[in-house]
Amino acid sequence: MAVPNYSDFSKDLNDLLSKDFPLGNAKLEINQSTSNGIKVTVNNIKDSTTGKIVTDLKTKYTDKANGVTLTNTYHASNVLTAQVEVQDLISQGFKLDLHGAMRPSAGTTSAKAGLELKQANVFARSSIDLLAKTGATIHTDVVVGSEGLLLGGDVAYNSGDSTIHRYNVAVGYKTPEYTLGFHASKKFTHFTAGYFHNISPKLQVGSRATWDQAATSHVAIEVGSKYILDKSTFIKSKVNNFGILGLGYTQALRPGVKVSLGGSFDTTRLHENVHKVGMTFVFDN
Q: For the chain, percent helix, then strand, then coil, each to nearest 5?
């Protein structure tokens, strides 16, 4: 099995417990692809509490023949971002990533350059801030794996004050059927243990225990499941030890049109106005 990058170390479990639960907002996503490799995405999100609408427009051009991807995003908050990715630049498995952002109203800019190495048993990434005024920050993460066993580390070093701002480690075991993972993050003050299981082609279950040493002495436990009703519909549920119940329903109405409904309910205060609901529409063409 392919070794994941550090951000995707526990992706199966994170997706199970986080994705397809649209809460507190209504979202409309429109994706349009052209024959020459350009994909246009429009996201509109309305917060049900404040009524504020957030919009962004993203265009992505992929040149598969040369391994080049160009992505531009314009946010309604007047932020422009641009990203250039070049695959297999030096040799097979190397990728160059250049990312820049500009806020014209504030006159601020930022830029970051990164290099990624992906091989059979290792996935390594490193990036540096190019326009930092107080010293460049170097971010590096590495995951190595063999026969299902995974070991990863993540660190951020600032050259301005010569300090390590962040360090995290993760260890796990991954098979096609189940995944085990343990994370120690926030300078070893935040600990997470998780388990994900593909019980059958229709049923997935998972659980996660989290302890933040700096915030509380209690362990937060969350359990979730996903059941596929048919090829176009699935339902999800999750509950934690604080009595918060999450429910999600996703259905493909027709090819290219998908709707998701979600809700979060505090079962300890059912008669109070503390619950959240939301929905997402996705159009792909």
A: 5, 65, 30
pLDDT of residue 54: 87
Q: Per residue in 257-283, pLDDT tens?
A: 999 999 999 999 888 888 889 999 999
Quick check: 141 and 131 in contact, CB under 8 A?
Answer: no
Cα–Cα distance list, 102 to 56, 79, 82, 279 (Å):
14, 6, 9, 31
Q: pLDDT grade, residue 111 (50/70/90)? A: very high
CATH homologous superfamily, domain 6-59+134-284: Porin (2.40.160.10)
Q: For 233-252, what is the mean pLDDT?
A: 95
Encoding tokens for residue 100?
Answer: 């820049």
Tokens 């529409």, located at residue: 281
Rounded CA-CA distance 188/153 in Å is: 12
Extents of the domains making up the chain: 6-59+134-284
Cα separation, 84 vs 62, whole angstroms: 10
If you compute the radius of gyration of the chain from its CA atoms, what whole number of angstroms results? 21
- The pTM score is 0.87
> Is residue 132 classed as helix, strand or coil in its secondary structure?
coil
